[in-house]
Amino acid sequence: MFAEEEKNFVIVTLVMVMNLRIRDLREDADLTQKQISEIILCDQSLYSKYERGERVLPFDLAVKLADYYQVSLDYLFGRSNKRK
């Protein structure tokens, strides 16, 4: 039981880091949510939910964001602090 709770904690933590990272990357690039949503071809309100953690960012959109910002998926998902 403890191992399952620990695993869930790690997953939640990684998702929270990813939400912060996609917002920080967008803000560092001086882009609006609308601009990023157009780049990754999704609705702005949906993208906003990704940043707030209300929806899980699909893998294909995570790849598009990582490619756009030229960072690794490990960085985007919080598994590394190295951008590349």
Could you describe the 3D structure shown?
With about 80 residues, the chain is mainly alpha-helical. Helix 2 (about 35-40) packs across helix 3. The model has no long low-confidence stretch (mean pLDDT about 90). The protein is built from five helices and no strands. The longest helix is centred in the first third of the chain and has 27 residues, at about 1-30. Helix content is about 70%, strand content about 0%. It is globular and about 40 Å long. It has helices at about 1-30, 35-40, 45-50, 60-70, 75.
Query: Over the alpha carbons, how many angstroms does the gyration radius reach?
Result: 13 Å
- The residue ranges in which pLDDT falls below 50 over 5 or more consecutive positions are none
**Main sheet characteristics:** none
Calculate the terminal CA-CA distance, rounded to whole Å. 36 Å
- Give the SSE order as H and E letters: HHHHH
**Helix tally?**
5
Q: Quick recap of the structure?
A:
This protein has 84 residues and is mostly helical. The protein is built from 5 helices and no strands.
